[in-house]
Structures are given as C-alpha cells and as structure tokens.
Amino acid sequence: MINVLVADDELPAVEELAFLLGRDARIGAIHRAASGTEALRKLETESVDAVFLDIHMPALSGLDIARAISRSSSPPAVVFVTADEDCALEAFDLAAVDYLLKPLRAERLARSVDRIRELIKDGTPAPEMITVDLGSTTRMIRRDDVTYVQAQGDYARLHTAEASYLIRVSLTDLEQKWAEAGFIRIHRSYLIALNHVQHLKLSTTAPSVAVSGAELPISRRHLPSVRDKLQSTRIRPQA
Q1: Which residues are within 8 A (CB) of 20 and not within 5 positions of it... i.e. 6 or more apart?
Q2: How far is Cα 12 from Cα 32, in angstroms, rounded to an integer?
Q3: Alpha-carbon distance 113 to 106, whole Å?
Q4: Which residue in 78, 102, 87, 104 sits closest to 5, CA to CA?
Q5: What tens digit of pLDDT does each residue of 126-156 get?
Q6: How far apart are the two ends of the chain, measured CA to CA in Å?
Q7: How many CB atoms are located within 10 Å of the residue 56 CB?
Q8: How confident is residue 96, by pLDDT bands cut at 50, 70 and 90?
C-alpha cells in the first residue's frame, strides 16, 4: 500500500484529490495538509511514500517543500498538482515523478500512482524528461510516454497517447540517442518504442506495426533489423 500526503491551501482541492486517491486500491493512508508548513510537520511525524503538492501555496510553496525533502536520505516521491504549466521545468529539475494539471482526471491520476508504485517497487531512477514548446509555453514530457516518433524535415514529431509535439531534432539523432531506451527505426520516417507495440505483421509484402492505435509501415531496408530486435526481445510477430 502507498501512503500519501496531499497538500493544498484550498480545502476543496485537498478533499477532491483525497477522494480520487481513496478510490484506488493501491493507496493506503491519506494524510492532509492545508499549508506548506503543515505539510512539513506531517512529513516529520507520518510515514509517507508519496506527496501530492500544490505549487502555489502561501509562505512555503510546493517547490519549497520539494527542495526541503530532497535533502533527506530517502525522500518520498513527489507529484506536483497545479492549475498552470509555468513551473514544469523547475518541477522536473527537482526530480518530480509527475506534474498534474487541474482539473484532475481520474485516469491521469491513476497513471501517476502507477509511476509511484514502479519507483517504490523497483527503485526506478527518475524518468528522462524532454522539453517541448507549445506556442509560448514550455512543457516537460516523459520519454517513456512517447509511443513513436515521426520525421518532419529537420524536425521530429513526438507522439504520445494524449498529444504530439514537434522538436528540432532529426530522427537520425534520436535513433542514436534513444536506442538504449528501447526505440528502434522501422522506416526512414518512423522510430517506435518497443514497449508500446500492440501487434506486428512481418509479411514480406506489407510489413507493419501497430503502436497506440497507429498502423505504421516497416520498410524493406529496416525489416531484417526489426526482425533481429524482436527476436532478441522475445516479442513474437503475428503470422
């Protein structure tokens, strides 16, 4: 069971998040704090595996709390909960497990609990984060949320389950940098994440792969290397 602390200076926000967390069977004790100061006191007296912190609290902000607990020998996992995206860069500099935007969605919160559970169970290192620009807003996304990458000239479009983002990096550069993270080239225009593969068709006529609902072609040039990679990772192709 995962024991959590919810900290927000707005009581309705605390109760809403506590209610949503309480519906998850993986969550144990849920502690509440209505200020940054109260959150630090609770962390000193209670056993907490993860903290859900509102960023904008008076006196001590969520970022201040995260900095304080990062100095401990075994800090709890940190998830920021906020109504804006302006602090995403600083949040992930503090090794946040996730960054949730209000209003909260139950399915998105469940994914955060998944990540906390992985971190606690396996001692998983902080995820690799990628900086993307959306107009005048800068966001951080997790690399393990990227399902596939599509070449667009000198740029690459990162596809996730929720959206896509254009970054100024070539597909060839990403192929080299992300190979150890389980990404493989299947076509001159596509790079895929093996752990997001749904099914494969490796026929000689029209080989393809389904990744998060998208059917992507495998070129003849890349087919042998794709076969070899799948063999080594024990992913079995469809007949």
Answers
A1: 104, 106, 109
A2: 12
A3: 11
A4: 78
A5: 567 787 776 666 677 888 889 999 999 889 9
A6: 41
A7: 15
A8: confident
Q: Classify the phi-psi angles of 59: left when phi > 0, otherwise alpha if psi is within -120 to 50, otherwise beta.
A: left
Pairing mode, strands 2-7 and 50-54: parallel
Tell me the residue type at 68: A
Q: Is the pTM of this model over 0.70?
A: no
The secondary structure of the chain, three-state, reads: CEEEEEECCCHHHHHHHHHHHHCCCCEEEEEEECCHHHHHHHHHHCCCCEEEEECCCCCCCHHHHHHHHHCCCCCCEEEEEECCCCCHHHHHHCCCCEEEECCCCHHHHHHHHHHHHHHHHHCCCCCCEEEEEECCEEEEEEHHHCCEEEEECCEEEEECCCCEEEECCCHHHHHHHCHHHCEEEEECCEEEEHHHEEEEECCCCCCEEEECCEEEECCCCCHHHHHHHHHHHCCCCEC
